[in-house]
Amino acid sequence: MLLEMVHGGFQARTKKVVIHQSERLLSDVEAKNVLNIS
Question: The organism sits in which domain of life (predicted)?
Answer without folding.
Answer: Bacteria
